[in-house]
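Title: Request for sanity check on 3-hydroxyisobutyryl-CoA hydrolase prediction

Description:
We are preparing a figure and want to confirm that the structure record we downloaded matches what your pipeline produces today. Could someone re-run it with the sequence below and paste the raw structure tokens into this thread? We only need the token string, no images.
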Amino acid sequence: RLLPLSRLQVILQHVKMSKHTDSTAEVLLEKRGGAGIITLNRPKALNAINLSMIRQVYPQIKTWEQDPETFLIIIKGTGGKAFCSGGDIRVITDAGKSGSSLAQDFFREEYTLNYAIGTCKKPYVALIDGITMGGGVGLSVHGHFRVATEKTVFAMPETAIGKFSLHLFFVLFVTGLFPDVGGGYFLPRLAGKIGYYLALTGFRLKGRDVQKAGIATHFVESAKLPALEEDLIALKSPSEESVADLLNSYHVKNKIDQEKEFVLDEHMEKINSIFSAGTMEEIVENLKQDGSAFAIKQLETIRKMSPTSLKLALRQLREGASMSLRDVLAMEYRLSQACMRGHDFHEGVRAVLIDKDQSPRWKPATLEEVSEEFVDDCFKPLGNNDLKL
């Protein structure tokens, strides 16, 4: 006896899901009630995302978006340390050197996934518990809701491969040499010049500060996330409004660091003034002229970074401030390919991951040597190879 088509589709979907809920899989995809749940499952690699994971997550989001019985999408990470620490740059740089298409495929498909999240018609809830950097930002920040916890560590450290003396995983999984995955869209839209400051210094926000900066929409105690997830799943035919109401109810009950001043509050006047400059040379001059302990510290940080990536990032943010997410991602794809062709991305990976001398030799070595013509060239369309969304 033939089953009705709708029933058969449900069974086939269940069989497909069961393949992905194997606990050894890199990404787990499951349907619970009206919720589609994505779990990044590489805890030893701090849930860094690779091309295989992207190729599982993207079609599933598109399927759930069209499914009348899926009302919201939840994404989270396993292991308790990270939501997602980025993309595996060692693999990408090896591919670039060997002439493999992986360097093109990874960025093209990652940005396509970022755009799918940014345009998703179903409420999308990212539980950014733990390290959220690089590619992990792209998996979360463009969705409707981002829930930070006291364990969240947020940064866009791409300009600083070679600068951070952090645990290896912090630098192993940055995705490039500019704040990509739509950084050119969301960073310049943060209050004042916070986004410019984060992009050009790699400064890390932690806990409630991620929400106070406007990156997370809510702040919930890490231990309460399982209960929040169950309550989200239990919502009957949830709308964006009902999901927001539930998240708000958890948010207002949380008292951790509630009275604590935003970490950048005392510096915001300087940040807004200094980072309003139109060129990196002017920003550096502003920092020198200011001469405060804060300014000197930023100057020391910037001087260790790739001059090329600093110039690319500043222009990326200035242009991205008035562009759509679609156009920003197309621009960033051009930049990603310029970085793959260039010197500094591979040099940064060498200094941090291969030789581990933590002393990258940038070419050009100074801001003044990075010409406007070179920067212009990195932003040029790629013809048939452009990212099409």
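Thanks, this matches our download. The domain at 27-385 is CATH 3.90.226.10 (2-enoyl-CoA Hydratase; Chain A, domain 1).
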